[in-house]
Amino acid sequence: MTWFMVAVVVVVVAAGLLRWRRPAWYWLAFGVVLATVRVLVRYSSVMEACGLTVPPSRWRLALARVANRPVPESRAPRILRLRPTRTGLVLRLKLRPGQDAFDVASATDRLRHSFGMYGVNSREVRSGVVEVRMTGYDVLKQVQMPAKTDTRPMRVPVALREDGSVHYRDYRAVPHGLTLGATESGKSVYQRNLVAGLAPMDVALVGIDCKQGVELFPLARRFSALADNPDTALELLEALVSHMEEVYQLIRAEQRISVAVPDAEIAADIWDLPEDIRPVPVVVLVDEVAELALFASKEEEKRRDRIITALVRLAQLGRAAGIYLEICGQRFGSELGKGITMLRAQLTGRTAHRVNDETSANMAFGDISPDAVLAAIQIPAETRGLAIAGDSTGGWHRIRAPHTSLRQAVNTCNKYADRTPDVPALAPFRPAVAALPSARVPLSKTAPATA
Ligand SMILES: Nc1ncnc2c1ncn2[C@@H]1O[C@H](COP(=O)(O)OP(=O)(O)OP(=O)(O)O)[C@@H](O)[C@H]1O
């Protein structure tokens, strides 16, 4: 294997020497091959130096003694698979008896220095098998999403992780999400990527933008309902609750449970319903949620309580009815009043951009992972868009969404405007937009200024 790789390098170098002016992908491929060879050549010695070897077993020692051979060497984890990627390398290792995934995880920084890589991350694949991802450069400095991603219904490739893999927002696995971050930290760009990713899918988008609609209203053509103030937001949320109840009635009617129905055929959520009657899933995007929870008078307090109650009901019961919440804000804690922590507990997918204090980071990760809190505080102010994404299992990743301008997101929404479904319950909130010009809108800055 090693000699084959050396031969490949020799051929690549020779080709490079004959003609230095090569496209960028050539030098990228060259770097990856070089890194692969470096890792393979140094593998055993680095693993030993990093304390990732185990001494020879008793029977190997006995065998060597009987055969009068030298004492066998300590053994490193066996390489099951080596896969060069666009950003570096992925190794799959079979651990030796006595080793565990934590041994590898705690040695990642030593491995990074020893192999001369930019970053090394590890994760357990299954019992006894660990995947080690190595990146040759800072992939989050200038985010470039791979051309091919594993897109499935309700699963959006929204950002890149620091280990070079794609970060997906999978609504069916993690129905509701909370995105926090200080001002100018990159929340809107992240949300724009989500909308652009959802636009080509069969999904109804509902937006509540309390920044007077500046973020979501330009994307109106792909939205089935929009609200730009707390009063409309309340009506819209209550309409969504009624829609949810109707969907539950539909699921109930379709269950038709009798003793003869096998378990698998009993519908428990919209995805179990036949496609022809399945209601369209709804993603509700709320920008600057604190605006919905603040009040200055008795009247506003009543409105606030009704809004939070509707949000809590949607978060508790929405998943089976195909209603998913995506809540965005600068802070989201108990200081916003009653019901907020109850709502937060239902928002499993957590993403924190740069925050200014530990309390804000705690609002995202305090109840999930203390390490993630620390990582969120350490995000540098100059790297906008960098975020920590965690889930309820305690796992977290450093991610960054590609920089999508509002113009690009508007063009994507206009392109898929015909996919905007009509949800009867939300019809009164459908934004009124002028008809799209028949000519195709070019994906460039020269597109007309009207969204
Ligand atoms: N992923 C990214 N890559 C590069 N630049 C980014 C990224 N995300 C955000 N930025 C830059 O940071 C600036 C602020 O981003 P954004 O408007 O998303 O912040 P925000 O958190 O929504 O701020 P506010 O709460 O004040 O609206 C943007 O103008 C953009 O240039």
TrEMBL record:
InterPro entries: FtsK/SpoIIIE/SftA, FtsK_dom, P-loop_NTPase. GO terms for molecular function: ATP binding; DNA binding. It comes from the Bacteria. Gene3D superfamilies: P-loop containing nucleotide triphosphate hydrolases (3.40.50.300). Keywords: ATP-binding, Membrane, Nucleotide-binding, Transmembrane, Transmembrane helix. Residues 163-362 form the FtsK domain. ATP binds at residues 181-188. The chain crosses the membrane at residues 24-41. SUPFAM superfamilies: P-loop containing nucleoside triphosphate hydrolases. It holds the Pfam family FtsK_SpoIIIE. PANTHER family: DNA TRANSLOCASE FTSK, SPORULATION PROTEIN RELATED. This is S-DNA-T family DNA segregation ATPase FtsK/SpoIIIE. It comes from Streptomyces collinus.
